[in-house]
Amino acid sequence: MLSRLALRRTFTATAFNPYKVTVLGACGGIGQPLSLLMKLNDKVTDLRLYDIKNAKGVATDLSHIPTNSVVTGFSPEQPDGLSNALKDADVVVIPAGVPRKPGMTRDDLFNINAGIVLDLAKAAAKSAPDACILVISNPVNSTVPIVSEVFKKLGVYNPKKLFGVTTLDSIRASRFVSELANTDPTGEKISVVGGHSGITIIPLLSQSQSANALSKEQKEQLIHRIQFGGDEVVKAKNGAGSATLSMAQAGAKFANAVLNGLAGKEGVLEPSFVDSPLFKKDGIEFFASPVRLGKDGIQEILDIGKLSPEEEELLNECKDSLKKNIDKGIKFVDSKHL
């Protein structure tokens, strides 16, 4: 008969799944709180933090928190710092890049962040080709296609393991609806589909009982607020940053869902901007919709369901912009002749 200690060890060994998670851009406004949240995640036993500076300091700081994970910092100054940070990772989260500032256009953001994401994608393709890649770096509508093209050109692309993190749109929608409907925000589940910027963000309010009960004027204002919630934060911070804390929470929430899927948990469903068949007939290679997560990444891409006439109109408006955003990312990689 097994002792209590042996039983406990047996249970721990069978119930616990250790995972290696790498955060690229771990010392930025999103990266630090995101890294903290991943340190607190009991499924993460090996947490690697990479940034161009101060990664060792942030890693040392987090390492003092008593959770079941080892934290290591990596930088370009170390020999093979980036490749060692990525080696054999199960999940790679990419918040690297510059935040949006007042007056900065999406084109401005693209011109800076596209090159950063491309270089990180090349490193991930070589050192962690089987990892789930979670892209937070904006503009997501273009950076996710950049990663896909890099992986394709290097012969390691797996569409089931590439995700654009759009969770922030969903959690904003839940919060904003609850404020208007006077409901518990933790109980609101608003489906948001399309892309991850401006008019490409489509909140499906008709599929929510709370939101559907709002007036037409309230719905119109709500849709605009969800689509441009990032601008609200940039303006409120007065040039001191963009949505960092809420984005970190959204990123950690999605990363946890991916880890749950890898661990074999059933019924893990989250929205994400992925290589999708839903609108390929319209020339749109990527689209955000609910995806079922599993041991191999994406298990199933769900349809967006029935739309109201107003939402059909939003979808039509979204498609042209979304296609242009995606094409921009693909053309950027093509121009680099990898």
Number of helices: 12
CATH superfamily of the largest domain: Lactate dehydrogenase/glycoside hydrolase, family 4, C-terminal
Report helical residue fraction.
Answer: 40-55%
Q: How many discrete structural domains?
A: 2
The assigned CATH architecture of the largest domain is Alpha-Beta Complex
Outline, from the CA principal axes? globular
- The computed structural class is alpha/beta
Strand order of the largest sheet: 3-2-1-4-5-6
Tell me the distance between the termini.
60 Å
Query: Strand-residue fraction?
Result: 15-25%
User: Which residues form runs of ≥5 with pLDDT under 50?
Assistant: 1-15
The CATH topology of the largest domain comes to: L-2-Hydroxyisocaproate Dehydrogenase, Chain A, domain 2
What is the arithmetic mean of pLDDT? 93
Give the total of beta strands. Answer: 11
Question: What is the top-level CATH class of the largest domain?
Answer: Alpha Beta
Observed structural traits:
46% helix; 338 residues; 2 domains; alpha/beta; globular; 12 helices; L-2-Hydroxyisocaproate Dehydrogenase, Chain A, domain 2; six-stranded parallel β-sheet; single chain; 17% strand; Rossmann fold; three-stranded antiparallel β-sheet
Structure description:
The protein has twelve helices and eleven strands. The protein is of the alpha/beta class. It has two domains: 20-166, Rossmann fold (3-Layer(aba) Sandwich); 167-327, Alpha-Beta Complex (L-2-Hydroxyisocaproate Dehydrogenase, Chain A, domain 2), CATH 3.90.110. The strands form three sheets. A six-stranded parallel β-sheet has the order 3-2-1-4-5-6, with helices on both faces. Helix 5 runs parallel beside helix 6 (140-153), helix 6 packs across helix 12 and helix 7 (167-181) packs antiparallel against helix 9 (216-227). The longest helix is centred in the last third of the chain and has 26 residues, at 309-334. The relative contact order is 0.13.
